Amino acid sequence: xxxxxxxxxxxxxxxxxxxxxxxxxxxxxxxxxxxxxxxxxxxxxxxxxxxxxxxxxxxxxxxxxxxxxxxxxxxxxxxxxxxxxxxxxxxxxxxxxxxxxxxxxxxxxxxxxxxxxxxxxxxxxxxxxxxxxxxxxxxxxxxxxxxxxxxxxxxxxxxxxxxxxxxxxxxxxxxxxxxxxxxxxxxxxxxxxxxxxxxxxxxxxxxxxx
Amino acid sequence: xxxxxxxxxxxxxxxxxxxxxxxxxxxxxxxxxxxxxxxxxxxxxxxxxxxxxxxxxxxxxxxxxxxxxxxxxxxxxxxxxxxxxxxxxxxxxxxxxxxxxxxxxxxxxxxxxxxxxxxxxxxxxxxxxxxxxxxxxxxxxxxxxxxxxxxxxxxxxxxxxxxxxxxxxxxxxxxxxxxxxxxxxxxxxxxxxxxxxxxxxxxxxxxxxxxxxxxxxxxxxxxxxxxxxxxxxxxxxxxxxxxxxxxxxxxxxxxxxxxxxxxxxxxxxxxxxxxxxxxxxxxxxxxxxxxxxxxxxxxxxxxxxxxxxxxxxxxxxxxxxxxxxxxxxxxxxxxxxxxxxxxxxxxxxxxxxxxxxxxxxxxxxxxxxxxxxxxxxxxxxxxxxxxxxxxxxxxxxxxxxxxxxxxxxxxxxxxxxxxxxxxxxxxxxxxxxxxxxxxxxxxxxxxxxxxxxxxxxxxxxxxxxxxxxxxxxxxxxxxxxxxxxxxxxxxxxxxxxxxxxxxxxxxxxxxxxxxxxxxxxxxxxxxxxxxxxxxxxxxxxxxxxxxxxxxxxxxxxxxxxxxxxxxxxxxxxxxxxxxxxxxxxxxxxxxxxxxxxxxxxxxxxxxxxxxxxxxxxxxxxxxxxxxxxxxxxxxxxxxxxxxxxxxxxxxxxxxxxxxxxxxxxxxxxxxxxxxxxxxxx
Lengths: 210, 681
Prior knowledge:
CATH architecture of the domain at 78-210 in chain A: Up-down Bundle
CATH superfamily of the domain at 285-515 in chain B: Cytochrome c oxidase-like, subunit I domain
Distance between the termini of chain B: 27 Å
Distance between the termini of chain A: 41 Å
Structural class of chain A: mainly alpha
Shape of chain A: elongated
Helix content of chain A: over 70%
Strand order of the largest sheet of chain B: 1-2
Shape of chain B: globular
CATH class of the domain at 78-210 in chain A: Mainly Alpha
Strand content of chain A: under 5%
Largest interface: A-B, 63 and 65 residues
Number of strands of chain B: 2
Largest sheet of chain A: none
Strand content of chain B: under 5%
Number of helices of chain A: 8
CATH class of the domain at 285-515 in chain B: Mainly Alpha
Radius of gyration of chain B: 26 Å
CATH superfamily of the domain at 78-210 in chain A: Cytochrome c oxidase, subunit III, four-helix bundle
Number of helices of chain B: 20
Largest sheet of chain B: 2 strands, antiparallel
CATH architecture of the domain at 285-515 in chain B: Up-down Bundle
Oligomer: heterodimer
CATH topology of the domain at 285-515 in chain B: Cytochrome C Oxidase, Chain A
Structural class of chain B: mainly alpha
């Protein structure tokens, strides 16, 4: 992984030339437009997930087909949740790396974040296939529809996050992520942390609360 | 990007070898054009605002024709113009069109055009996302209306209650079009909300604190916050419905134990903030018009502002008053009856403020003023009939009758639309550089007032007599005949008043050729958008004014003597800005990608309905559009003043940083790879 993330010579030169000054944000709030926009977008996302979580709570007891207790594999999902939570740590390390101007580390930590996210997604896909094999199809019951829609929706968010992270790695490799653009990484990080926090709620509500 | 000559940014412009041309990505279109292409690629908030208005008027005509069809059908008992099925589609599409494709986008049109001018900004925070919002709205609206040609429109009412919205009860694709079309316009609204909130919070002119913002800007801020939180709830509900209708999920499938009330709750948690976000922009507009023509400051500025904010909060706690007959239980009914009574208070505060603004003022009854007074009076009627719904036992009687139809047309047409008409007459010279004819305008107002009241006032009576809404006909002998005839006559008078308005646009434009130019400030107005030339130059302000108080422009023209008398201290021409060629002002470059990205969405939606392969094509367009968007050079490489160093950073990184820190105070970096973050997901 680290091998692939090592930059070409030209990029190293670009990294070296990257300016060290932090930009001042000449906005009324002192927060840059992009970051404020991301916060607002995430606020809006809360309501979207709120609607889906509420729906799940309403429908968690199926009239037919497997029940949550019968089907959930708590140790497995706990492990994949832990993997996802760890990706928040690597994301923080990535932001810290670019703020120090360490572009090599940035790419490693972003790559690690994406990898952990991908591991979580692989876990989710595996979990879904097992559930389907055990007789919980999307259309089986009100519980199954609500479960797959909520967790699948979250999975789409993680996937979009992974795509953004990989795009950041590519940008960095092409020397287009100089240090004064560290905020870009920070903003993708905001999105990533949000997706993690939402998963804590979903994991608690869906898997842990009886 | 208002980078002026001050910075060292111009240094890089000559270096053609440093221009970044990524493989397969277009260079950006040239700015400053005037042909039709310039409209397709524009990121100028003013052009986008005009397009919002034009598209909304187009949809207004469609929705208006649907309204006339309804009224002709109900002219006499046992009408035969429309079948029951077609009638269902017509009233559903009428409601949907008027709410989502007319009133909301007219609000967006004013917000887009005016709000940046009122706060002295060069453009909105994300110009390309702004363009994307418009195109997504337009394509979503066209997609929604294309259902007429592809098997019929939605037929479950504008709220499409479950389980009526299921495939069993509505087997055509109409509701799928409704569902997916409104998800697309929802994405547009959401992107617009983020954009405009950031603009208001971050890009105000020097000196303009929040409590010095014009009221319209305040109401825009509240409206966009409502959109930000209301739209995702609707989207969540519509995703559930989509899963049900297209992929056989069980969210509203009663046979599998689903609870259809879930839809009502989700819909109205969105739907009630929705009614406030439709009316608040109009409230903002009349709060600009009334002080101008009363020649007095708005009475109780903080009260107007905080009552708007209070409406924004309380609007979230009244949704179940739409559901009093759904069996939600006495405790819920009592709670929501009480909150419904409370929310009348901040609205009443506004009515009082407007009345007090006019009280003792030197009123001049121009057309915008007439429409504003029309709003105050008509909305008061609608508001009063609204409070009657909080009397739950009476509401049980009124639910699903024409009384409700009368009520919400009084607030949405008599309220919002009268305000918008006032706004059209008021801001027309600022936008298009000529005044609309006053005589025709006054005729327009009186005709509209007459037609409006003839149409909707009788519906109160019809409703109290027990005439149900959404029923395609009625029998003779119930006493409905007379008032239905009156309402239908009123509807045609109303339609003729709209025709008169459209005639006035062209008539006044033709006449304007022989008249002197309107100048910056034809109304002797108060806020800073009136100190710039009419029509607004592309760069808005030059220089950006420093604001020291509410109604800043007014106090540049007028002072007060010790005994409170108004005295002119400067001629308008001396304090208004002069037109210049604006060549030294750097503006965001146009872009191809917003329209490409927006175009992918209806394609994907058609695909979901008809063929998943087509959905894949749409998805490819969306993803490709996103990457084109992100990789697009931040600015036109051939523009005379290049942007900061993202593209040219290999030339000298240090220079690029210097540019960013030395730019003037008003503009942030808007074209930035992280843009993806806002549009994905």
